[in-house]
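Wed. Picked up where I left off yesterday with Putative spermidine/putrescine transport system ATP-binding protein. The coffee machine is broken again, so keeping this brief.
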Amino acid sequence: MSHITNAIEGKQLSVNGLTHSYGGQNAIDDISFEINAGEIVALLGPSGCGKSTVLRAIAGLIQPKSGGIHLGGQDLAHVSARSRGIGMVFQNYALFPHLTVAENIAYPLACQQVPREQRRARVEEMLSLVQLKGYGNRLPRELSGGQQQRVAVARAIAGRPSLLLLDEPFGALDRALRFDLQVELLHLQKTLGITTLIVTHDQEEAQSLASRLVLMNKGHVEQIDTPMAVYDRPKTLFVNTFIGQANVLRGTISQLGAEATVIALADGATLNLPRRLSFTIGSQVTITFRPEEVRLSSEPGENRLGARLTVSVPLGPTLVHDLVLADGTNLRASEVRGPSTFIPDTGTQLFAEIDTARCHVFPVEPEVSQQS
Ligand SMILES: Nc1ncnc2c1ncn2[C@@H]1O[C@H](COP(=O)(O)OP(=O)(O)OP(=O)(O)O)[C@@H](O)[C@H]1O
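Structure written out below (tokens, as returned):
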């Protein structure tokens, strides 16, 4: 395995101002991001936001309307898809059904005119790398979905690409198998040091695999950050609600102090934030907070909103409470469940205390003024 490590040299990928449309409207607009050599980055966003389009442009399968793509400093504008040195894995395996596993893996090597002996050795290497030693003579249909996807990965890296593109590679697999393959892929990627871009709409997959996330929405990039930064410091309401769960309330800025902001909610309640926000008094805002930032209490008090408990559900180690505020807004709270955690009765009138130090506040029309 050691000489593979030396052989694959991940290169830096740089995407600048990538724009593409299939008809009138842009599918992607001014997309820019970088992936360091050997890094694994996830392109994450809802269905139709343009992820696959970005991937196709990088692979050379479509010619973007504008923007630049550089791999290891080389401009790919006039480099054919074949000559880009990029390996790809798609959701639906795309193995050749009439070729054996070994022939599938050897296929790109044959295209590169790698001599037969070397090809055979590389196929063996790849098979052991993806833990399919001894499966070389099988046909794809004689393998499970997870095994087929491992073959697809082996085929993608057999030609020693300097960039690996994965488009929803585990989308067709069940949850447990997905997790196993994610762990394997991460191990493989680290061992080989291959620069990797994975497209997914599964936030858990993105968070567990990637060192950084590129969050896309409606053809734009909303935020590029580490998984933790995206969760803790979302730049937009979209990112905040797309990654993890968030409670969303509407309010109006009613007081601004040196180190405090008071927000009035619809039903007359207020939230006091221990910092000055850069809004003017009277601004309409959206306040968000995670379920784990809500604590239930039976007493009223500061930052406590009257709420009726609709249901409490124990989910393994956590207890999730769904509540409804007086104005009908739903609220979710969660807490770590211990042996003596008290579970209140459904319908109980309680107070939901919001940890306002950890709230996020966004302008009410966040989609109008997207920043890059
Ligand atoms: N070949 C095509 N012709 C016309 N429109 C297309 C084509 N491919 C994609 N689109 C449109 O471009 C937009 C972006 O599509 P894209 O496939 O890149 O999104 P995606 O984020 O990968 O979605 P998904 O997660 O559902 O695969 C969508 O509105 C889609 O309908």
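Quick read: The radius of gyration is 25 Å.
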